[in-house]
Design brief:
This protein starts with a helix and ends in a 20-residue tail after the last helix. It has helices spanning 3-9, 12-49, 54-74. It has three helices and no strands. The protein is mostly helical and 94 residues long.
Length: 94
């Protein structure tokens, strides 16, 4: 076997990234369900009251940013691990 390929296959960092990718893929699936529930809730709220819920708007904006961060990590566009290994979008860093 090629030494470079063997080194890549035995790389702890690669396997750790694969582990995190599986975890974040599950997070993305859960987040999409929450997005769907938010869409339905906001539609019903707008239909009944004439305007969307302001608190849910803020939450959904942060959730959209989180999904974007997840996708960036999963597609190798970022090496920064999203929440819970970094702050939730919209929160201030201390």
């Amino acid at each position: 076997m090629n030494k470079k390929l063997k080194d890549k296959l035995l790389s702890k960092e690669k396997w750790l990234r694969a582990f995190f990718m599986i975890i974040y893929l599950a997070c993305k699936c859960i987040a999409w369900w929450i997005v769907l529930i938010t869409i339905i809730f906001q539609f019903l709220t707008d239909f009944i009251t004439g305007k969307p819920n302001a608190r849910v708007l803020e939450f959904s904006n942060n959730l959209n940013t989180y999904v974007f961060q997840l996708l960036n990590y999963l597609t190798f566009n970022s090496d920064i691990k999203p929440f819970p290994f970094s702050n939730w979008p919209g929160t201030k860093k201390e």
